[in-house]
Design a protein that fits this description.
Radius of gyration of chain B: 11 Å
Strand order of the largest sheet of chain B: 2-1-7-5-6
Largest sheet of chain B: 5 strands, mixed
Number of strands of chain A: 21
Oligomer: heterodimer
Number of domains of chain B: 1
GO molecular function, one term (chain A): oxidoreductase activity
CATH class of the largest domain in chain A: Alpha Beta
InterPro entries (chain A): BFD-like_2Fe2S-bd_dom_sf, FAD/NAD-bd_sf, FAD/NAD-binding_dom, Metab_Enz_Cyan_OpOx_G3PDH, Opine_Oxase_asu/HCN_bsu
Protein name (chain A): FAD/NAD(P)-binding oxidoreductase
Keywords (chain A): Oxidoreductase
Number of strands of chain B: 7
CATH topology of chain B: Ubiquitin-like (UB roll)
Shape of chain A: globular
Number of helices of chain B: 1
Helix content of chain A: 25-40%
EC number (chain A): 1.-.-.-
Helix content of chain B: under 10%
CATH class of chain B: Alpha Beta
CATH topology of the largest domain in chain A: FAD/NAD(P)-binding domain
Strand content of chain B: 35-45%
Number of domains of chain A: 3
CATH superfamily of chain B: Beta-grasp domain
Distance between the termini of chain A: 11 Å
Strand content of chain A: 15-25%
Largest interface: A-B, 43 and 36 residues
CATH architecture of chain B: Roll
Chain lengths: 424, 77
């Protein structure tokens, strides 16, 4: 059976940015459709939906529930059949969504970089482990090591601890000098400083090592331990889980497929959040990693701008300056140390989908050449994980995104043709 | 409250509302193209490492699905 949906404003991603955009656009009287890949709205920061979100999120969820927005959870964007149309797929069916304006709130993923043993079950992203725990993973009395960089390590540690895990230590790759400067700069952001203080309090007793990183995950068929570089010394620790994440990266696949201008890995937008393509807006982490307050503000601006409330949107625009300054702080103070991109050994796999090793990739000069010869980046994740790794390790830029944006059923790709044949 | 799901035909109990990748943790997972054991990595639908067959539908990301009564999960070997 075939069907087509119509909406004034299509919003991709139901995290804070997408929800804020939906609320603002609905208040203007527009018909809004909010499409999200996850089982419940909330994005990654409020993963698990209203029942699990912090109190600060509850009014946002309530406003969404009270709005007329149509929420399509569990749907991903598979392809772009024609301008103004998206092909959506869920586990059971495919649908074409026709829209007037599009707001992309595709969020971010973790930067995951290869090191010996990183493919062992039990090794996850740092935010990835937090997401699994929010999804009900039982970590009571489990011994956990977190490593990587950025404030997410602290947030993840707090979630794990609250779930009963024993967080053995946190290894932050940034040196103390950078962390101190970041802490000092936080003075200008009292709310964020309070948040950091609260996290520090919740993490009392968990050793936090700066200028430190994971060297290798140990184990045969599952993680059994971790070898760490802690400042000048090395340490081997047995553990049940190892969460490693080197900051966040904007999800730009859909933006690239729509030919929106990308600069330094994030969508380029004007003061009203419009991308280089008229009628297509980008908000939240997709325009640069800056956290939940930036996401909520940008969502609101785009929701207003896309529904013709330009003056109201314009009035909010100056507030972005402060959020962008915070984003720049994050970027600067948690920049990767050179050692992090030199952890892979010749036999360490870089592309986990096609099992392509560091040694075999070092033979090539470009992403395209490596793809043609090794299938690196051509597996199930379509380069979503190894793309960032290859950029960090070899300096390769992606070679452009082509639909389908994710592995998609053949039947789903036929949907636009069927919809045309049987219009509803 | 618990729901019963079947993993490779074996009955397992999982907490109602929990995520399938969380329910599968600790159980043998997928094998990679060269036969290495793999399990959930990103936890948020990006890496596809946790993919399983659910009720006959292949390549479903376990981390993006909530468990339900009678869910039939098959590992992809």
């Amino acid at each position: 059976m075939s069907s087509e949906l119509h909406t004034d404003i299509a919003i991709i991603g139901a995290g804070p940015a997408g929800i804020a955009a939906a609320i603002a656009a609905c208040a203007q009287g527009a018909h809004v459709t909010l499409v999200d890949d996850n089982p419940r709205p909330g994005g990654q920061i409020w993963r698990g939906g209203p029942s699990q979100a912090p109190a600060s999120a509850s009014s946002t969820f309530r406003q969404l529930a009270d709005s007329q927005a149509r929420l399509l959870s569990g749907f991903r964007v598979a392809a772009i059949p024609a301008p103004g149309q998206l092909l959506l797929e869920d586990p059971h069916r495919a649908q074409v969504l026709r829209y007037g304006k599009l707001i992309i709130a595709s969020g971010a993923r973790e930067r995951l970089l290869p090191f010996p043993g990183w493919t062992l079950p039990g090794v996850t992203g740092a935010g990835g482990l937090q997401a699994l725990v929010k999804g009900g993973l039982d970590v009571r009395d489990q011994h956990i090591v977190l490593a990587g960089t950025g404030p997410l390590l602290l947030a993840s540690a707090a979630t794990l601890r609250a779930a009963g895990a024993q967080v053995l230590l946190i290894a932050e790759q940034a040196p103390w000098s950078q962390l101190a400067r970041f802490g000092w700069a936080l003075k200008a952001y009292p709310a964020k400083l309070a948040q950091a203080a609260s996290l520090a309090w919740q993490l009392g007793g968990v050793p936090y090592h700066h200028a430190s990183h994971v060297l290798a995950a140990l184990g045969q068929t599952r993680l059994e331990g971790v070898q760490l570089q802690l400042g000048a010394r090395t340490l081997t620790l047995p553990c049940d889980w190892l969460g490693v994440g080197y900051g966040l990266l904007p999800n730009t696949e859909l933006l690239r497929a729509l030919h929106c201008q990308i600069s330094q890995g994030a969508a380029e937008v004007d003061a009203l959040m419009q991308t280089s393509q008229a009628g297509i807006y980008a908000v939240g982490e997709a325009t640069g990693i800056g956290g939940v307050d930036k996401a909520l503000l940008e969502g609101r601006i785009a929701g207003l701008a896309a529904t013709g409330a330009a003056a109201a949107a314009q009035a909010l625009a100056p507030k972005r300056k402060r959020q962008l300054a915070f984003a720049a702080l994050l970027d600067k103070h948690f920049a990767l140390q050179p050692a992090i991109t030199q952890l892979a050994q010749p036999d360490t796999l870089v592309c986990r989908c096609e099992d392509v090793s560091h040694a075999s990739l070092q033979l090539f000069d470009s992403w395209r050449e490596a793809k043609l010869q090794t299938r690196c980046g051509m597996g199930a994740c379509q380069g979503r994980i190894c793309g960032a790794a290859c950029e960090s390790l070899y300096g390769w830029q992606g070679s452009g995104d082509r639909p389908p944006l994710l592995p998609t059923r053949l039947g789903s790709l036929l949907e636009p043709t069927l919809a045309k044949a049987n219009p509803t | 409250m618990k729901v019963q799901l079947f993993i490779d035909g074996q009955a397992h109990l999982a907490t109602l509302g929990s995520n399938l990748a969380a329910a599968l943790a600790g159980l043998p997972g997928r094998c990679s193209v060269s036969g290495q054991p793999r399990a959930a990595l990103c936890g948020m639908g990006v890496c596809f490492e946790c993919r399983v067959t659910i009720d006959g539908q292949p390549h479903q990301r376990a981390c993006q699905r909530v468990v339900y009564e009678g869910m039939e999960v098959a590992r992809e070997l």
